[in-house]
Amino acid sequence: MPSATAPIRPKPLIPRLAPLATMLLAAAAATGCARHRPIETEASLLARREHLAARNNEVISDLTAKLLDRVRSEHEAKERQGIQDPPTCDILVISGGGDFGAFGAGFLKGWGSVREGGLPRPQFEIVSGVSTGALIAPFAYLGDDRDIDDVVHLYTNPRPDWVRERGLLYFLPANESFAEVPGLERELRTAIDAARIARIAEQGKLGRMLVVNTTDLDDGSPRAFELSRVAIRATETGDPSRLHKLLLASSGIPGAFPPREIDGGLYVDGGVTGNILYGGRLRRDQSIGALWARSAPDLPKARMRYWVILNNWLITPPKTTQPKWVDVISRSVDLAVRSSTVTGLRHLLTIAELENLRGDFSVEVRIVAIPPAWRPPVEGVFKEETMRDLARVGEELGRDPNAWLGEIPE
User: Which of 27, 39, 202, 271 is least crowded, fewest Cβ atoms below 10 Å from its Cβ?
Assistant: First the structure.
């Protein structure tokens, strides 16, 4: 034992301080190397907003014109065959939900086995997807059994590198996100290959639409992209990168997954501004019903059917939340998205009710969600056991025509 007057030797502290010093030096270096975007003035951002709004209105006008032409063609074809059924516009709406997208993939597979008399899976005029729903949407849009089998396989065989933390210092503010998604990017490029994109383009030329929602962080607003149009351009140029980037942007969980820079703006998960995409922002005079009534007053009233697949519970399960910032934030974000989704569904049901009262269109809304009693078999995200079980549950519900709901339960 050293005497009271012996000098204190700091050497034993060095091994304990070295990791901290290394982390601090690395943090300083990482901050210095952070990527910075040029800061635009508010005036330039407002001008960009005006430009995007004008382009958006042009796209909406084009989309509705194509849809009306398709519905009118269906009516004429039925008339030639002596069929009295009204022309029908089927719209599939697929929500976000992360790894719970396995439910939607499984549901589509089960739904494909339903035959006449039991609400069989139709060919959809419009397929919209948000977040994980955007990744499912291209397969649902094409709609062949092989396409559905491929998306089920994708969601039931998660790979370890789908989501990968950015090393020891993943939490630093200079990072674009906590994690990278190299595996997800690879799987997406493999699944949505040139052949599949060409098929999407072919269907786009026939007037069918594939649409995904994103969030423009610079503008602070949602922005929908028509991927069927993007696919046509991709086949012409041989460059599918924009289509892949839009899918990754729509599914880019803020903070967790990298944002994507598109057309000069920074884009993240569409679920931030709208977890379901159903045309709720359209003005009354832009709605399909109003346009049909104006453009085809002598034709019979058409029918519009919304099919909503919610990759989550409709009613949030109770859960004890620990007073830790990670737990509080994750639970709060989950509740915020879930609440806004239910609000969106109520809005869609209200729109349907108003359209039916006006008499322009006959509108039906059907909703399916993860059963309230279901719970993940294991904790964590992107767990194979959970995703396989959800796909199984979805497939079982898809075979049951009574699984569809016509209202939001209290």
Answer: 39
